[in-house]
Amino acid sequence: MSKMKSFSHHNELDQLLHGLGLKTFRDRYQELAEKYEKTGKGYPEYLYELCIQESEAKDILKKERLLKSARMPRNKLLGDFNIERIKGLSRALVERLAVGKFMDTAINIMIFGKPGAGKTHLATALAREWCLEGRRVLYRSTSQIVEDLKKAQMENRLHVYLKTLDRIECLILDDISYLPWTPQDSGLLFQLISERYERRSLVITSNHTFSQWGTIFPDKMTAVAAIDRLVHHSEILELNVSSYREEEAAKRKKTIKKTD
User: Which residues of 164-185 are buried (b: 16+ CB within 10 A; e: fewer)?
Assistant: First the structure.
């Protein structure tokens, strides 16, 4: 790059870059220009590096926004989830699901296990990976989403709210079997499941197997219809282990006994 002439339009350039939303360009073009002037590289290389830096900065901001909007209760990492302790759980399957391509065909993920088995950890850790892949994800406990649906119904905007949720590529409903549901609750839950059927993905965690879902959907036909929609396109992960918290407590107790 030949020696650059003095540039007298810095303020105008700053305003233009700000208007175009090119923050990294704005922050780094002078520093990078000085660097390239010294190395003698050409203008295309200079522009290319600025574009790369702008793209990387925007990608980081996008991932930060997706993680924030996902509203995960805790920052769980997939690397901290001990797959080996769960017999029958395929590492290859978990790693494949972590990529997030299943959302392109509206596949659901069902995670079953006892309280403390790690269902929420696995669901939120996978959700974090999906955000980093650029996917729009939302975590809600099932009780929270039911309250949201009830409020929307009371305000005569249920259809609008369901359409808003349709923008979410993967909706996580945690602890679907945590509370007994009223007919109104289960009806709204079924409406949500039906709305997303073959359109958008759901991740559902449950302490109860499908045979016990009578407590979630008191009406037998609704229960059958809901399960049919969820299972039609799904991956089922069974965490057949005792509570992780119980295991940790037992280990601590054992350690204390040894030291006594």
Answer: ebeebbbbbbbbbbbeebeeeb
